[in-house]
């Protein structure tokens, strides 16, 4: 059995010393990898240098930094190897910095926009075109100057990485993850089912941040037919995912 696991969280560069990231530790990914090592699975483990990492002779680590890096690494792995299952637990940033502006730069850009518009108010199309022009100014490779009281960041949307997986390898069994904050089970379930349909996933591990901690981790492994099973710790979730994959792939 060959498994691909992603874990940890991406970090989106603002400049050479600053970035936008998240709080994902990678602990759940480590628990999942450890669960599969007892079944003699070969594991490609994609993570970040700051996340916790599993150890084992059958585990190959692949380090990434941002979403673009992740997409390139997964594309290489999924076009080079055949995987029985892909477990995509990494917390991937929805947005990445496109450019940054000081107060003076933003004022100049606004003044230029105003002089180009005959109307007293801006239309949504005009605003979007202006933002598109701003995004052409690339993020600095050096440290952004602190000689401004306010720094303005323009963020652009990242592509959905989970959507890439079944596109590159339709036959693999895909387990995705969905994390929401302080919602009802009904909403969590509906969002998970929507993700399954949009990304051709076989299962989604749905969880709520208020039910995730150092010792507890309440999650629901939801199948594409709407059935689900619960687990209350990271190790229980890892064992549930392992058992489900082994059963589904008939290993």
TrEMBL record:
One GO term under biological process is: coenzyme A biosynthetic process
The UniProt keyword set, sorted, is: Ligase
- The segment(s) forming the DNA/pantothenate metabolism flavoprotein C-terminal domain are 2-101, 135-246
Cross-referenced SUPFAM superfamilies, in alphabetical order?
CoaB-like
Q: What GO molecular function annotations does the UniProt record carry, in alphabetical order?
A: ligase activity
Does Transport show up as a keyword for this record? no
- Domain of life from the UniProt record: Bacteria
One Pfam family hit: DFP
InterPro entries listed in its UniProt record: CoaB-like_sf (IPR035929), CoaB_strep (IPR011848), DNA/pantothenate-metab_flavo_C (IPR007085)
Its name, as the record gives it, is: Phosphopantothenate--cysteine ligase
Q: Which organism is it from?
A: Enterococcus saigonensis
Q: Which gene encodes it?
A: coab
